[in-house]
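pasting for ref
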Amino acid sequence: MDLAMDMAPGLRPPAERTAPIEQKQEPRVVRALLAGIGGYLPETVVSNDELARTVETSDAWIRERTGIAQRHIAQRHETCAFMGTRAAAAALADAGASAEEVDGIILATATPDEAFPATALRVQAALGARGFGFDLSAACSGFIYALSVADAMIRTGQARGLLVIGSEVYSRILNWQDRNTCVLFGDGAGAVFLRAGEGTGGGSDRGVLSTHLHADGRLADILYVDGAVGQPERTGHLVMNGKEVYRHAVLRLAEAVDEALAANGLGREAVDWLVPHQANARIIDAIRKRLDLPPERVVLTVARHANTSAASVPLALADAHARGALLPGQLLLLEALGGGLTWGSALVRL
């Protein structure tokens, strides 16, 4: 029997039917979107000239070597938790988010208010949030480290909304008679609110594209704090070999920024903003030149903030955001190096 002739008019035999066209679906991945940015700086500003009245230095000496003109110094009520709470509240407001959306708080600091509880939990209570909270210590690289942890938690579904905070009161661990260190640092806090979103896994996605962390404990003695709870007989002051830190910073940060771009298949021309750790204007300029970026595409706050350690990068983000410089779709390259030595980088698309 001829099947074709035995079928209803207009129908074709099964073998001749056109197979349904499958719609190719783009793979979807979870991304940590940068939904809100906030910062807090202490009310008291101390200029180089004011420092020169109490320690042997000068405005010209400080500016020439570091690019710093002033720094904010916390008063008694401006604790690590107080400043972190203010920055976090600003980040939530910027994101249009409530405390109920916060699944956890990761707070980077080397200057917590207490050995425990974690300063993150003091912030949690002040905000009226729930979920988890913990502190992370990686010195000036702390925010990059904390961002990496938060990104991983959102990618794996452990959280959908996270506050990442850097809050520091370095003025309380400085030897104010040592002109090589006391002129370099300031206090403050910065925060971002990360919210889970979707992407395809490519470099054009919004959110944290990748983070890259490194450390070398063999270099611990070039930048450290001499004592803490476990060694109360020591000074508890910051100690630094400036020349060695500078040498390693330029090399390691250059490697880290190249690593971040290579991991995402992006060239240096893709970077809209370099948001560096604000430690020294000369280090920042060396990294800028390596990326072949014009000065106007670098977020620079070191002259006004000095080095605020783990708060440095998020405060720089908050500063750029407040003046309307950060726009949707832009690619941000973040980097920092601190005691440990620790260093790292991150690529984030707004």
